[in-house]
Amino acid sequence: MQAPDLLEPVVGSESPHRRVALYRRPWVVLLGAFVIYGLIALVAYWPLFPGDSSRMPGCACGDQAQEVWFISWIPFALSHGLNPLFSGWLNFPYGVNLAQNTSMPLLGLLTAPLTTLVSPIASYNLLLWLAFPASGTAMFAVVRKWTGSTAAAVIAGLLYGFSAYTIGQGFGHVMLSFVPLPPLYFYQLHKIVAGREGSPRRQGLVLGLIAVAQYFIAQEILATLIIVTALGLIVLAGATCRRVSRALLRRAATGLIYATGVVAVFVAYPLWFAVSGADHASGSVRPVINATHVDLFGPVLPTHAQRFAPHRLIVDYASKFSNVEDGSYIGAPLLLLAILLAVRYRSNRWIRLCAVMAAVAFLLSLGPRLSVLTHKTSVPLPFALLARFPLLDNLVADRLSLYEVLFVSLAVALGIAELIRDVRSPSLSRRARHAPTRRANPYVVAAVAALGVLTAVSLIPRWPYHTVPTATPSLFRSTLVKQIPLDSAVLAYPFPYGDNDQSMLWQAVADMRFKQPGGFAYMRGKNGKPTLAPANLDPTIVQRFLVTEETTQTAGTAEVRPPPVTNALAADLRTYLARYHIRAVIEDPGFKGSADVSRLFSEALGPPQLSGGVEIWLQMPGQANT
Question: For the chain, which end, N or C, has fewer CB atoms within 10 Å of the first or last residue's CB respectively?
Answer without folding.
Answer: N
